[in-house]
Amino acid sequence: xxxxxxxxxxxxxxxxxxxxxxxxxxxxxxxxxxxxxxxxxxxxxxxxxxxxxxxxxxxxxxxxxxxxxxxxxxxxxxxxxxxxxxxxxxxxxxxxxxxxxxxxxxxxxxxxxxxxxxxxxxxxxxxxxxxxxxxxxxxxxxxxxxxxxxxxxxxxxxxxxxxxxxxxxxxxxxxxxxxxxxxxxxxxxxxxxxxxxxxxxxxxxxxxxxxxxxxxxxxxxxxxxxxxxxxxxxxxxxxxxxxxxxxxxxxxxxxxxxxxxxxxxxxxxxxxxxxxxxxxxxxxxxxxxxxxxxxxxxxxxxxxxxxxxxxxxxxxxxxxxxxxxxxxxxxxxxxxxxxxxxxxxxxxxxxxxxxxxxxxxxxxxxxxxxx
Length: 371
Known about the structure:
Elements: H1 25-37, H2 41-53, H3 58-78, H4 84-97, E1 112-117, H5 125-136, E2 140-143, H6 150-160, E3 164-168, H7 175-187, E4 192-195, H8 204-208, E5 213-214, H9 218-226, H10 239-242, H11 250-256, H12 258-272, H13 281-304, H14 307-323, H15 332-341, H16 346-360
Parallel strand pairs: 1-2, 1-3, 3-4, 4-5
Helix pairs in contact: 1-2, 1-3, 2-4, 3-4, 3-5, 5-9, 6-7, 11-13, 12-13, 12-15, 13-14, 13-16, 14-16, 15-16
């Protein structure tokens, strides 16, 4: 098994009318990709500068050049054509080149928007793409970056005010924290728009968690804000009011016991697969991290009561493992070990059964022989 932290990137959704030069953005994205892949920050800065000089508008450069390259970074990492170090270096360069984009101060701001990643969410570039898009369109933006604790977010809004708050989450494991943030911001009367793949490609978890709006990507979010104020949030309410299934306490119990679940699953795998005794420290660490990811996504799926969240993560992980030469069915023993420990948790067992089914589903009519 191998460590699989999913890079989070906004998908492409609703588009505005094409801006001048957008049809040429692909050529400049290719040039920027070449510079980023070579870890040449100066060349990357030159690409963006020259694209602007060639007539591309700043928003097109932001979303169709820098944003397109960042999406490719995520895809190349998943396909095992970039290391984690390469991915981090590429993301840092993309973040750096955003400083080249011109932002003129408007005579009158459209309004005040706070943009932040939810607590524990460290994929910040999608949120920054949104913040820069809104600035280009004349909004006064407070960009707070990655991993913003909810209490600090609320204090900031109390102090500075905001017409709307935009929250980003790339990983679905952040949904419980996102829900707490959404509820807290709404409780002080400020509407919340959310985005990022953590809320589902179709925004299903945004609706389930009671967000006031959802957008699939930065341009769609900016268009929605430009169309008029977001709906006023509901009166203050408890998180559990949105998700009554949490009354069974399965999410709470799995979350509280996550460390012991990971430890016990690892030990059971050691007992059943003697080859693990020969793992080096790096292999052991990566295996433990993979188990921890499975437990985290299991908990998130329990939180929103959606098997698709868990099975989607497992099939994505299977693809990543396959690209790294690791059989996807290597995930199955870990699911079995977790099921043994969670035999008194019917919803968790249902999710684990759905995960096994997803991993052993026949392809092209051919059965898969599980490990």
